[in-house]
């Protein structure tokens, strides 16, 4: 599969504050009764964006000043819990192109990378400053440079981290491994014959 | 220098180094279910690919199945479409499906071991984060996303970077009424919900060796709740004894050869670990969660901590938890009224869980007004419980005894909390909304503690409630 390299993401950002935002919160299980990923964007963060009665809670994602944001900014341990790819699928399908957080749960990070959704890890104080900045001025353009692993926004500029293989994959357009895996199928068959 | 089981299994299954620096890893056994596989089969069709090794993939249906009645079509048309889609995919691609009429259906992490598909020294993958359960047999088992399900279907491999290995040694004797569930809840509470990120957890030491295989499954199951994608226990005689004679295990001479190979896969005594943590079993007491992540737990005789008492990193989550749970810092959970008791899930719905709790439930009744449901992890578990009369004990106590499935562990089927009900649950996650109601409140605990809560109608110390047994 030939994919375009992803070197930069730029856009406005929305704060989804809090630590340990799990994949059940990103997409509650009851909205996963489906056989395709179509339409999942609509249910992103459903239970924190709406009351059980279906009223809007005026979550930042739904606030006019953050409409059209393409970068999610959250806290520590983002994406913990279930391995459901429905979570990053919902984020992508809601129009997001990158996530910046304090750190990511491992399976979520891998799933996101495969979809071409870069997840970069920022230091706590940088994350705090960025969150304050976008809350104060939601029109701020946030730029993520994946080559230099740097985030700039207004007067802010800080380094972020990302697992080397994921960075390499995104920069080279090989973040979805299927083509590379298929290319080695002859080797796989040899190994399979040896293993129980 | 010795090697860990993780590294031995990794080296044995490595196919190639990929251009991004990751490893192409062969997956010995692939397990699938109805929620995370349909899109993967869709991608295969889009790409014009086949399943490369259909005999290495096994399917069952668990998340969406109703547990009260099994008549098809299911009332929930979405759920009905999902089981039909899985049937079609398995038939189109030649995959074995433990469907409802087979008598072998159940929660994927209970069915694999029960059928002897789960074996030591191999790699296992499944589109479900609790795949770590299979590590109890000395397998390296990964929870994966749907794109990786596609990768494994198409190539029997996936791209991965090696993990570090942390040895978690548990020493000493567990007190009466303290179970495997308490050990793992205590480990997660101590090391944190993201303490295991980047690690495989090797559970070791005399206490772990002393546990049954099913207890080891409970511990490995919740590795992901501590952030570790993989958790395992080195295979030993108990492992082989548990597996011997199971349908998919080698037979006769092949069995003997397999056991010799499996023994070699255990971590060497001089293996080098990236980290070691030691726990004393005697310090662990029955544990109950009070918050919205599995690390927010306390011993039954402790009070809920105030956020200020906790390390800075845990404070904001603790505040959020207290608000959501409507609990107060300083409050004890013992005596907290419950509305629902859920006995089930891939963490605790095996035969030994039901047998242990039945000893205490015999002759007792579920408290008035409590909705108590018991959901065997598989049709196999259900059958054995029926043969032993365990189902009868649960029914007579006032539990609703159901058909096998994930049930109320997650809100994907009709078994759900209503409003802000409080549920004493033997499951693995207490996330906001996890049990189907956005405001529902989950208290994680051992199955025997669930039984104690069911009969008293409130969170109780099972050691006191069942003292006369």
Please provide a written account of the structure:
The complex is a heterodimer of chains A (196) and B (469). Chain A is an alpha/beta fold and 196 residues long. Chain A has a single domain (8-194), classed as Aconitase, domain 4, CATH 3.20.19. Helices cover 32% and strands 16% of the residues of chain A. Chain A contains eight helices and eight strands; from the N terminus they run E-E-H-H-E-H-E-H-E-H-E-E-E-H-H-H. An eight-stranded mixed sheet of chain A has the order 1-6-7-8-5-4-3-2. Chain A is globular and about 60 Å long. The mean pLDDT of chain A is 96. Chain B folds into three domains: 5-160, Aconitase, domain 3, CATH 3.30.499; 164-283, Aconitase, Domain 2; 287-465, Aconitase, domain 3, CATH 3.30.499.10. Chain B starts with a helix and ends with a helix. At the A-B interface, helix 3, helix 4, helix 6, helix 7 and helix 8 of A face helix 2, helix 3, helix 5, strand 8 and helix 11 of B.
């Amino acid at each position: 599969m030939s994919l375009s390299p992803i070197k930069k993401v730029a856009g406005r950002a929305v704060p989804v504050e809090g630590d340990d935002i799990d994949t059940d919160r990103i997409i509650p299980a009851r909205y996963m009764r489906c056989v395709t990923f179509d339409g999942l964007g609509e249910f992103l963060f459903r239970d924190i964006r709406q009351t059980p009665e279906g009223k809007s809670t005026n979550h930042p994602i739904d606030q006019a000043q953050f409409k059209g944001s393409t970068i999610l900014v959250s806290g520590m341990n983002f994406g913990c819990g279930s391995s459901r790819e429905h979570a990053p699928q919902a984020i992508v399908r809601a129009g997001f192109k990158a996530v910046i957080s304090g750190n990511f749960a491992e399976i979520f990070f891998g799933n996101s990378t495969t979809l071409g959704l870069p997840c970069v890890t920022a230091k706590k104080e940088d994350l705090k400053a960025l969150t304050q900045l976008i809350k104060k001025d939601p029109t701020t353009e946030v730029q993520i440079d994946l080559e230099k692993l740097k985030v700039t926004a207004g007067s802010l500029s800080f380094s972020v981290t990302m697992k080397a293989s994921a960075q390499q994959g995104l920069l080279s357009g090989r973040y979805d491994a299927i083509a590379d895996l298929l290319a080695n199928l002859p080797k796989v068959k040899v190994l399979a014959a040896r293993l129980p | 220098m010795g090697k860990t089981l993780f590294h031995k299994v990794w080296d044995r299954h490595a196919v190639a180094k990929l251009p991004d620096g990751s490893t192409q890893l062969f997956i010995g056994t692939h397990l699938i279910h109805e929620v995370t596989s349909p899109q993967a089969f869709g991608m295969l069709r889009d790409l014009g690919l086949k399943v490369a090794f259909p005999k290495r993939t096994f399917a069952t249906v668990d998340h969406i199945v109703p547990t009260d009645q099994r008549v098809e079509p299911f009332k929930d048309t979405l759920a009905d479409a999902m089981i039909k889609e899985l049937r079609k995919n398995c038939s189109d691609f030649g995959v074995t499906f433990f469907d409802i009429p087979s008598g072998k259906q159940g929660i994927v992490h209970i069915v694999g071991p029960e059928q002897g598909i789960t074996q030591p020294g191999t790699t296992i993958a499944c589109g479900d984060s609790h795949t770590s359960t299979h590590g109890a047999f000395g397998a390296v088992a990964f929870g994966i996303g749907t794109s990786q399900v596609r990768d494994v279907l198409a190539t029997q491999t996936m791209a991965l970077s090696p993990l570090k290995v942390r040895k978690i040694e548990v020493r000493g004797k567990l007190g009466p009424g303290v179970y495997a569930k308490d050990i793992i809840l205590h480990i997660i509470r101590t090391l944190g919900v993201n303490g295991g990120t980047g690690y495989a957890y090797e559970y070791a030491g005399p206490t772990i060796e002393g546990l049954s295989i099913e207890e080891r499954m409970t511990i490995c199951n919740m590795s992901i709740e501590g952030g570790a994608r993989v958790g395992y226990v080195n295979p030993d005689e108990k492992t082989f004894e548990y597996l011997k004679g199971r349908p998919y295990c080698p037979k006769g001479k092949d069995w003997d050869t397999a056991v010799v190979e499996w023994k070699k896969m255990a971590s060497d005594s001089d293996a080098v670990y990236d980290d070691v943590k030691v726990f004393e079993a005697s310090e662990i007491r029955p544990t109950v969660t009070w918050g919205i992540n599995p690390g927010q737990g306390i011993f039954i005789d402790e009070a809920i901590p105030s956020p200020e008492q906790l390390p800075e990193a845990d404070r904001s989550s603790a505040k959020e938890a207290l608000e959501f749970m409507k609990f107060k810092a300083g409050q004890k959970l013992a005596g907290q009224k419950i509305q629902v008791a859920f006995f089930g899930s891939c963490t605790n719905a095996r035969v030994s869980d039901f047998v242990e709790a039945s000893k205490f439930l015999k002759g007792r009744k579920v408290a008035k007004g409590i909705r108590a449901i018991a959901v065997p992890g598989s049709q196999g578990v259900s059958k054995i419980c029926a043969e032993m009369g365990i189902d009868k004990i649960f029914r007579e106590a006032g539990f609703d005894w159901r058909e096998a499935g994930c049930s109320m562990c997650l809100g994907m089927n009709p078994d759900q909390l209503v409003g802000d009900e409080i549920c004493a649950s033997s499951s693995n996650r207490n996330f906001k909304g996890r049990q189907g109601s956005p405001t529902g409140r989950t208290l994680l605990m051992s199955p025997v503690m669930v039984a104690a809560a069911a009969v008293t109608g409130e969170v109780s110390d099972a050691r006191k409630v069942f003292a006369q047994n």
